[in-house]
Amino acid sequence: MDSSITILLALAVVAANLPFASDRVAGFFKVARKHFGWHALELAVLFVLVGGLARLLEARQMPVHEQHWQFYVTSLALFLVAAFPGFVYRYFWHRPAH
Hints:
Protein name: DUF2818 family protein
Structural class: mainly alpha
Keywords: Membrane, Transmembrane, Transmembrane helix
Radius of gyration: 15 Å
Transmembrane segments: 37-57, 69-92
Strand order of the largest sheet: 1-2
């Protein structure tokens, strides 16, 4: 059980930074300049996917505990904190291509 939690946390950190790693939208579609809205949309989709995986892993171990809005707000805040290194690299540290 501990290894699945570690893998899930590592996957969440990678997923949080993934939108800022490339100029491609969803990793497939090349755009001239990726607007912040695309980053935010990708971040939201990846948050939902990681949350779905976490729910699936929990369901395999035990009955899924009911969550309220406070849990999702806290999880989103932690996901955004995990995305901070990618954000800093993309907007503050990395030199623009043009």
